[in-house]
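Recall the central idea of this unit: under ordinary conditions, the amino acid sequence of a chain determines the structure it adopts. In this exercise we apply that idea directly, starting from the sequence alone.
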Amino acid sequence: MKEKIIINDVGPRDGLQNQEKILTPQERVALIEKLIEAGVRHIEVGAFVSPKAVPAMAGTDLVAAQLPVSDSSGEPFGFSALIPNRKGYDLARAAGINTMGLVIAASNTMNEKNVRMTTEQALAVCEDVLAQAKCDGANVVAYVATAWECPFEGIADEQAVIEITGKLFDYGASEVILADTIGAASPGQVKSLMTKLVAAYGAEKLSCHFHDTRGMGVADVYAAVECGIRKFDASIGGLGGCPFAPGASGNVATEDVVLMLNQMGFDTGIDLLKLSAAADLAAELTGNCDGGHAGRWIKRQIEKAAG
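Accordingly, the structure predicted from this sequence is:
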């Protein structure tokens, strides 16, 4: 039996939120359906945020209403949505979302730019939402953004990241995702932080979210795998970027991560050829998707099979 690694595709949210072209809810559903066809079972389908602040995420409730609850075997899909606060939590719950993601940055300036709160205020919001989720029996995960570097404050303090992570677990987060929001981390930095976090909290409660700004996204995934991490965010076609973080370009491409993990002998459950079709759709819909580095190789395999 191959060891499993979970890929959570964040393309329909993180991948689309900063695109110049705003997709309709139906177009976003079409992209999610392509990901499902490829075997992706965990997908961030949108965000319950202010449509004025992030117009691309308007209508996430309409997207959620059109998604299947489970596959043909009855196994439920792991659909999630980003929420900024209690209001977002309530909206996501009403829309039937089964996993919600809160975000807090490791740096105070990023929190002020992203959610207009200090780190302490953002932690208080997280505590309130997570307490309500515990009462409701809902699943809320937490992101620690700028976990390695902040575009405003520079290199993140590892101890501060470790302490914020601990507080989030104390508040009731089921999982904490360490996010390299601007794609500044090196594999060595990833190994350093994740080794400490795994020792403190256990690999099974941690996952990682990398951007490919400096071309090190896949290498960072590898470093985290070596630390025992078995769940990763990735974005179809390498779409992505945070509108509130200067220099945050695309996420590490799902197809690049899946290819590497498959060749390392892990089971992702994802069909690379069908994933290529999802990347093609992402490019068609956005007009701004170069695809992962592995795209050309995957297409050659398709051509060989057809020929």
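The mean pLDDT is 94.
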